[in-house]
Design goal:
Distance between the termini: 34 Å
Low-confidence stretches: none
Shape: globular
Helix content: 40-55%
Radius of gyration: 15 Å
Structural class: mainly alpha
Length: 113
């Protein structure tokens, strides 16, 4: 489980859906007062991130019916660094790389050379 905390427009459909599922799973753990130390997340940002992810899912024509209970602000030893998350996501997912190029208006042919 993890929160990528990168621009949601950069994420392929699969990673967007996966982060959405992970947000709910992380939220359940937080509600049960279970540790999140083994998860790459920022529990204090769960609700706001869920709103971002849900809006993007709807923009892409995906169904979204699940609400996330807004929790009190909590802290964690984990911090998610957006630039590191983006680099990791782009290294493992060609579809996400393609979305970044499209969102940023880059020519995909030039970027491959």
């Amino acid at each position: 489980m993890r929160m990528w905390l990168v621009n949601v427009e950069y994420m392929c459909d699969a990673h967007l859906r996966q982060e959405h599922n992970d947000l709910h799973a992380i939220n359940r753990r937080v509600q049960r007062s279970e540790s999140t130390d083994d998860i790459i997340c920022e529990p204090g940002a769960l609700y706001e991130r869920h709103v971002e992810v849900a809006k993007e899912m709807i923009n892409r024509g995906m169904s979204h019916n699940s609400k996330l209970k807004k929790l009190k602000v909590i802290t964690s030893e984990q911090m998610v660094w957006g630039t590191e998350s983006l680099a990791e996501l782009l290294a493992i997912c060609p579809a996400c790389r393609e979305r970044v190029l499209n969102v940023e208006g880059m020519d995909t042919e030039k970027s491959r050379s």
